[in-house]
Amino acid sequence: MSRRTVVGVMGGSVCDERTARLARALGRGIARAGWVLLSGGRPTGVMQASVTGAHEAGGLTVGVLFDDDREGAAAGLDLVIPTGMGAARNIVNVLASDAVVACCGSGGTLSEIAMALRFGRPVVLLDFDPGAAFLDRCGSGRWSLAATPDEAVVQVRGFLADLGRA
Amino acid sequence: MSRRTVVGVMGGSVCDERTARLARALGRGIARAGWVLLSGGRPTGVMQASVTGAHEAGGLTVGVLFDDDREGAAAGLDLVIPTGMGAARNIVNVLASDAVVACCGSGGTLSEIAMALRFGRPVVLLDFDPGAAFLDRCGSGRWSLAATPDEAVVQVRGFLADLGRA
Amino acid sequence: MSRRTVVGVMGGSVCDERTARLARALGRGIARAGWVLLSGGRPTGVMQASVTGAHEAGGLTVGVLFDDDREGAAAGLDLVIPTGMGAARNIVNVLASDAVVACCGSGGTLSEIAMALRFGRPVVLLDFDPGAAFLDRCGSGRWSLAATPDEAVVQVRGFLADLGRA
Amino acid sequence: MSRRTVVGVMGGSVCDERTARLARALGRGIARAGWVLLSGGRPTGVMQASVTGAHEAGGLTVGVLFDDDREGAAAGLDLVIPTGMGAARNIVNVLASDAVVACCGSGGTLSEIAMALRFGRPVVLLDFDPGAAFLDRCGSGRWSLAATPDEAVVQVRGFLADLGRA
C-alpha cells in the first residue's frame, strides 16, 4: 500500500496576520505528521502560508490551481497542478483530501466545507466557525472546531484513525 | 439584445412534500415572469418539482446534469446539458444564473449558495435558512429570505432590477 | 416529450472569411431545421459566425463559455452559460449535443471531435479534414465529410434519424 | 525552487500486451530520470502499466481520476486525486504535465494530445501515430515520434531542456 495520506487546507486567498500565522503552523504540523499538504496553491493568504509551513518542515506539498498556467503558484510547492477550471477546481481539492482543515475564509472556503461534508470528508475548522446551522446541514461528513494548529492536527489524526488511515 | 434572463433553482435531490410543493409553485412563478428556469436537472426532489412547475406554465427549462448521458434527466426539460462532471457542475449552475433561488437542501445546495454569493449572484432563500453566520461570510452577493414562492419571485425581480435586468 | 434537439457547432476562435461564411450559413440551416444551436459562445470566429446565422434565422442559440462572466459572449445568444472552466467546458459542449458539426479549427476543435466520437456523438466535418488516421481511432461515434452547409445539415439529419431523433 | 518536473503518460484504458509492456518500461524510465509520473490513474491499460513501471523504479506517481472516490485507483499510486469530473479531468492531466508521452489509445487519448499541443505542452508519441494531418493542426506545442521507451525518454529530456527544465 503506497498511497500517501492527504490533508487539504482551505481558507481565504486574503487573510489577516493571525490567520496566516495559524495556517503556517498548521502546515508545519501536517508535514511533521507525515501527511501530504494539499491546497489551492495560490501565492496568497492561507494557501501560501500553509504551503510555506509544510515546506519548511520538509513535507510534500501539492497545489491544485484555479489557473491554467504555473505563474500564479505558491512558493514551496512540490507539485503544481494547474486546472484552468476556476472555482470548479474546489471540488478536486475536497475529493483529493482524506481530511480537510478549514481556516478563516469566505464563499470559496465555505463551498469547500459544504462539499467536503457532503462527500463524507471530515472537516476540522481552525479558529473559524460558520455556525452549526450551516455545518449540520451539509451532509454525512463529521466536523469539529479547533482553537490551535496543534489541536487541529490531533483532531485530524482522530478522524483519520476512524477512517482506518492511522 | 437577445439574451434571456436565467433564474437558477437549487435544492435537495431528496425533499419532503412541503418543499416539493414550494419548488413547483416557484417554477410556475419563474415561468410566468418570463425567465428561463435552470436547475441541476435530475428527476428527483427540488430539481424535478421546479422543472415541472415551469414546464406546466409554459416556461423554457434548462437542466445542467451531474451525469454524462441524458437518461437521468427530469421530465419537462427543454434543454438537457449533460456534463459528466459530477459536483463540479454546481459552479456552472451558479454562474449561468442571473439570480438564484435556494430551496431546502444539504451540502450540494449550500455549496451553490456559497459560490453564488462569492461570484456576486443574488440569492433568495425560500423557506430555508442556513444562518447569517454562514450567509454573511460568503461574499459580495446579496441575499434575502422568502417565506413563499410569490415572495421569492418578488425578491428576485427586485434583485434583477438592481442588476439592470428588469 | 419536450426535449429539444441540440446541434453543437465547433471550430476555430480565429478563422478566415471562407470558414466564417460557411459557419454562418450552417447556423441558418440548423435554425431552419428546428434544432437548437450550441457553441462555445465567444464573440469570434466560428462561434460568433454560427450564432449569427442561427439568430438571424430565428433559432434558439446557446453558448457555453470558457469564462466566468458574460462579458465575452457572442452577440445573438439566447442562453449564455458561463462556466469559468476554461477548456474543460469543451466536454460540456460535446455531451450536450445530439450531433456535432466541426468547422475548420485547431487543438480545441480537434479535442472536441475526439471526445464526441469517444462518447458516441456523430460528427459532421464541414470543409475540414483532420484525416482518417485520427478520426477512425477516436471511438464509437460515426463521422462524415461535408463540402457545404446544406450537405452538413442533410448529414446531421441522417445521423439524428439513426438515433431516433427525427 | 522546489517544483518537481511532471511527465504525463496518456493512453488507452484498454490496451494490448505490447502497449502495456512499452508503457511499463516508459514508467521505469520516467522514474529513473527523476520525474514525477502523472496519469489518469485507473487500474487498467496504459494507466496501470505506466504506474507499475514508475513505482517499481521508486518514482513518485500521481493519478488524476475520472471518479469521485479512490476505489478505482491503480495500484502503486502515491497520490490519488479523485475528481468526479469524468472526461473533464483530461484537461487537468495535460495542464499539470511539463511534457506528455502518448501511448496507443483512442478518443480520450487523442483529445489529450490535442489539448496538450493547443496549450503548448510538448508531446512524444510512443509507438503511436495518429497522423500529421491531425498533429500539425493542434497548436503551438511540439511533437515527435518515438519507437521505444528509451527513445521517448531522450525526446522528453530534449523538450524539457528547451523549456528550461533540465
Kindly, what is the distance between the CA atoms of the first and last residues of chain A, rounded to a whole number of angstroms?
Answer: 13 Å
Largest interface here, residues on each chain? Answer: A-D, 29 and 29 residues
Q: Order of strands in the sheet with the most strands of chain A? A: 4-3-2-1-5-6-7
Percent of residues in β-strands of chain A? 15-25%
Q: Compute the number of helices of chain A.
A: 6
Shape of chain A: globular
Give me the oligomer status. Answer: homotetramer
Mean pLDDT of chain A: 96
Helix content of chain A: 25-40%
Q: What's the CATH class label of chain A?
A: Alpha Beta
Description:
The structure is a homotetramer of 166-residue chains. The first copy, chain A, has 166 residues and is an alpha/beta fold. The first copy, chain A, has a single domain (11-161), classed as Rossmann fold, CATH 3.40.50.450. Chain A has helices at 17-32, 45-56, 90-95, 107-118, 132-135, 149-162, and strands at residues 6-10, 36-39, 61-65, 79-82, 99-102, 123-126, 143-146. Chain A has a seven-stranded parallel beta sheet with strand order 4-3-2-1-5-6-7, sandwiched between helices. In chain A, α1 packs parallel to α2. The radius of gyration of chain A is 14 Å and the shape is globular. Chains in contact: A-B, A-C, A-D, B-C, B-D, C-D. The A-D interface holds A 2-4, 6, 36, 55, 61-62, 64, 68-70, 73, 76-85, 88, 91-92, 95-96, 119 and D 2-4, 6, 36, 55, 61-62, 64, 68-70, 73, 76-85, 88, 91-92, 95-96, 119.
